[in-house]
Amino acid sequence: MGAPTETAVTVRVPAKVNLELRVGPLRDDGFHSLSTVFHAVDLVDDVTVRPASTSSIVTTGPYADAVPAGPDNLAMRAARLIAERVGTDEHVAIEIAKSIPVAGGMAGGSADAAAALVAVDALWDTGFSPRELHELAAELGSDVPFALHGGTAIGSGRGEQLVPVLAKGTFEWVFALHHEGLSTPAVYAECDRLRGREPVAEPEPSSGMMAALRAGDVDALADNLHNDLQPAACSLMPRLRDTIAAGLDEGALGAIVSGSGPTVAFLCGDRSEALNLMVSLTAGNIADEVVGASGPVHGAHVVHDVRRR
Ligand SMILES: C[C@@](CO)(OP(=O)(O)O)[C@H](O)COP(=O)(O)OP(=O)(O)OC[C@H]1O[C@@H](n2ccc(N)nc2=O)[C@H](O)[C@@H]1O
Ligand SMILES: Nc1ncnc2c1ncn2[C@@H]1O[C@H](COP(=O)(O)OP(=O)(O)O)[C@@H](O)[C@H]1O
Q1: What percent of the residues of the chain are helix, what percent strand, and what percent coil, each to the nearest 5?
Q2: Cα of 279 to ligand 1 centre, how many Å?
Q3: What domains appear along the chain, each with residue ranges and CATH number?
Q4: Is 104 assigned to a binding site?
């Protein structure tokens, strides 16, 4: 007889970049109405949950120290939310193998929340429908529903209402990471400050972006990358302007601050161009770290599931 199998569920979840982020007026609830195009890339976290007598959370990987280890951790909040809705007093031990940068505008915390929802849902066999999981995800944060779904999707409302986009092909990205993070609320506040009193229209997706994705045309996609939060992120961290200029000089087809930043995403023509750009940016010490990734990829999905019955 072999050793008893450990009960554990592991879910893999991708980071995102916003190909287009159009920020509308500030709503009464403190959120801005958005029109965004989310795009999931294969820079991933693995979240494992195991039954336990008390709740705990451990993060491993290069960004572990920046991740809260208590009840504020979004993965822990996700597990507690499911426990509350199911009405159970069971606990889980959560382990996050983290590769998505923290506070980088790539929705790493939201990704972990989505992964924990899927993992705990499987572990406890709760029977929530996809619609119910989406609603739980939206309670946890505006970006959490997209991490469940993945692919390429238009987000509206505060980002939580999703419609998949017809998109052809795979795109190659290089991400310039900065160890110093930017706070999402601070970047939205800076966007409001820079806009002053000018009236802001309700945002909508651009036809240029939709056509580029439908055709899988990387040059057109590069021309249509747009982020209304970019001036605010650059105002709070001016060296982002140099990062963007360096990547474009070194041959990137397009560049954009990812979400609220400070990660800068460079779009490349193919994988070999991406590798060349990674080498140049690394050699030029342009960012604290440079990583490559491609997209779109699937949202949160189970990669390991051993459950005792
Ligand atoms: C900017 C974006 C772009 O996808 O991503 P990140 O750069 O953070 O990854 C998102 O809008 C971030 O979504 P998320 O990080 O889930 O934000 P939430 O937890 O829901 O909200 C945190 C705070 O951000 C601001 N916020 C967020 C979403 C929104 N539509 N309008 C806002 O003004 C509010 O100040 C809110 O209190
Ligand atoms: N599991 C988690 N991983 C990363 N950050 C988390 C997590 N749970 C809570 N946070 C908090 O969320 C903040 C935003 O992190 P993150 O989601 O990585 O960035 P962004 O909102 O820029 O995409 C972090 O500063 C951290 O304090």
Answers
A1: 35, 30, 35
A2: 32
A3: 8-164 (3.30.230.10), 171-295 (3.30.70.890)
A4: yes
